[in-house]
Amino acid sequence: MQTNAREGLTTRSLVALAILNFFLADARDGLGPFLDGFLATRGWSPMTLGIVATLGGVLGMVATPLFGAWVDASKRKRTLIVIPVVLVTAAALWTLASPGNASVFGGQSATAIVGAVIGPALMGLTLGLVGQRRFSRQVSRNEFWNHLGNVVSLVAIYLATSLFGMAGIVWMMVFSAAAAIAAVIAIDPHAIDNDVARGLAHDDGAPGPSGYSVLVGSKGLVLLALVLMIFHFGNAPISRLIAQDFSIQLGTPFRTTAITTGVSQLSMIVMALAAPFLIRRFGLATVFMIALLALPIRGAIAGSTGAFAVIFPVQILDGIGAGLIGIATPIAAERILSGTGRFNVGLAAVMTVQGIGASLSNVVAGWLTNLGGYGLAYWVHGGVAALAVAAFLVGQKSIAPPAENEAARDAEALATP
Predict the structure, then answer these.
(1) How far apart (Å, rounded) are the C-alpha atoms in residues 63 and 55?
(2) CB 380 within 8 A of CB 241
(3) What is the full DSSP assignment across 359-371?
(4) What count of other Cβ atoms lies within 10 Å of the Cβ of residue 45?
(5) Contact 112, 60 (CB under 8 A)
(6) C-alpha angle 93-253-159 in degrees, rounded to nearest 5
(7) Which of 97, 98, 203, 345 is the most buried if burial means most Cβ atoms within 10 Å?
(8) In whole angstroms, what separates CA 392 from the centre of its chain?
(9) Can you tell me whether residue 307 is helix, strand or coil?
(10) Are 336 and 222 in contact (CB under 8 A)?
């Protein structure tokens, strides 16, 4: 089986993959970070918004591993991106047109369910296109184009809402969805190795992929999921609370959220560019530690002052923490599950467990905000990071194993007198 060279991989497919990631910034999440600011200015309370986010998170959490298994088995990975993009865009347009209980709860529930397939499908498609050896670098490139797309989208939304109001948002969403679909279609399906895409780059000759017991039988995968669950419990609600807080203060939900989210996305672009060097030079475990340590600093700064200027350091740290975690997670899962044939369902299982933390955090954050204001929520959720750091230190060798070439280099160095 081919593990490195990707015969048939064309420049067109890689360019299309970059364009897909660029436009998925809008097309995969619907209203995404704008939802909270939009609804907060229409009287929705932090607690209710937390329930909306939790409901979507739970539904996505249930759907994700099922979709991961579907991606492993499917040879139509492009279709598994196109259909969710169409449905997510339709749900977002419904919410904008009529922001009532049915559209918000129904639309966000549908977005969570169908959107859960995009992540595993994109990772499987990427691994199948470039192979294991180039996967780490390609994940960083994917993240770069995705965050760049986010920044461009945020600037466009800021200008569109200033010039055209809500109509500008609608046309932007339709255009982004159409562009993402066109990019998917441009990827050559014959360039996707479906065996490599599911983690069988190093098949040992056994008949077919290993069973699902690999998911619960892998210490590294379990510990990775635990660390990410704690991290996302702490990190997930902070940007949402920032958007709610300043949207209410300033009365401009779309423009305020564009600024706050734009700062974090610019930071994530820098992290996407730096990640390949950091992983090569210092190892995957160090990248995880940098990401985890950014969270308590972020929470402390956010909880210290209510001035608008706080968004800059707070959202830069979000880019460092969440940006690096987003790159390191699929790389770690691929290394842990290499040869099992269950990469996509394994990654989906990890995303499900981290989704538990993110989902529960939304209700807790809403309760804390009602109890002691936004500052209390920032302090508590930032402080949770200490547990994530401790859990990672216990199992870092299993969570972030070295790549094969790193392991061979280290063994050679030890054997040299």
Answers:
(1) 12
(2) no
(3) HHHHHHHHHHHHH
(4) 14
(5) yes
(6) 75
(7) 345
(8) 19
(9) coil
(10) no
